[in-house]
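Supplementary notes for students who missed Thursday's class. We covered one full example, reproduced here. Read the sequence, then the structure, then the short commentary at the end.
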Amino acid sequence: MKLNLLYDVALSLLLARWRQTLVAAVGVTFSITMFIALLSFMSGLNQLLDGLVLNRTPHVRLYNEVQPAPQQPIDRYTGPGRQYNFIRSVRPRDELPRIHDAGAIIGALRHDPRVRGVAPKAQAQVFYNVGTINLTGTISGIEVEQEDRLFAFGSYVVAGNPLSLKTVANSIILGKAAADLMLVGVGDVVQVTTVKGNRAQLKVVGLFQSGLLEIDKVQSYTSLATAQKLLGEPNTYVTDVQVKLHDFTLAPRLAKEFAALYDVQALDMQTANSEFETGTFIRTLISYAVGITLLIVAGFGIFNILNMMIYEKMDTIAILKAVGFAGADVRRLFVAVALAIGLSGGAVGLLCGLGLSALIARVPFHPASLPGVHTYPVDFDPVFYGIGAVFSLVTTYLAGFFPARKASKIDPVVIIRGK
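Structure (token representation):
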């Protein structure tokens, strides 16, 4: 049978029951719209949460944790016969958690083609001296330009200029929550004391806000040179080497390789944030499940409408078969009706999904803990639109296929006899 004739008959069936056709198309449109909007919003939210933690996390962190010596002196003694040594309350060696030969390690990593960047850091436990009260805190000595390039440090500074750490001697950028506790602001001077008793007065040149209150209460930043001077250590003193890779999926393997090569401890991003990534995966899974459920519900709507149409058009089907339409032609006819509903409803749904996502992305959103966020996060990933288009066609095809197969098996003689 000619396809043009089949399409003309299918169009006539659609227009003859245009209200039912419109209801089915609106069902598909609504499902696709909500599918696109839901996935775009949840993906944007996931990216925002990932950015709070993962974007500030090195793909591989090299450090030298203070641990008890693996071989105690008594273990070197081997007497005659069988002998067992029992050692209790072993204390670690009296040394700082510095990375030995950090300069050579950093130089080698910066020439590694798999590495995008390296940022050294010197960590120090301090007390912020506020009158007679001491607040515990942590100062990280950083190379500001590297930290900004690899971890977007500047985007978290809500007051002052992050590059002032490099240009102003003895300066500090405080966490905003810590600054609020100490009632200080940009331009003020704070006094800090290290655990060794070294004291220094540092000028506040900026405030940062990470979005995590507990971190903002204790964390602060100085230049690497200022931190080394505060600790009374030489300019080779580094406690952490933060590595960003071109491909972060290589982090677990490269962490083991770097640990063996440089004789340090290494922690990859996937291990350090395994629980966080599990939460992101579950949120994404829930979003897909809800969206696909909406599409399946729309498919059942089309299935019911086509079933009703077949029952109402029994006479028409019988006449079509009597004038030469084969069973396969009738099946193609009703599949074409279902696909027409899916195509029209899906196309409008994709446009409505894009419009609704754009509308959500313009809604003001000003969380106090995230100063860099001004609207709701939305991800306009084309993959979502591709999935929506394909799934709408598959759903409507399956919804139309079974009623169409049933229609193709109708015996026209039985219908014409009125049985």
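Commentary. The mean pLDDT is 80. The longest strand covers residues 115-130. If anything here is unclear, bring it to office hours.
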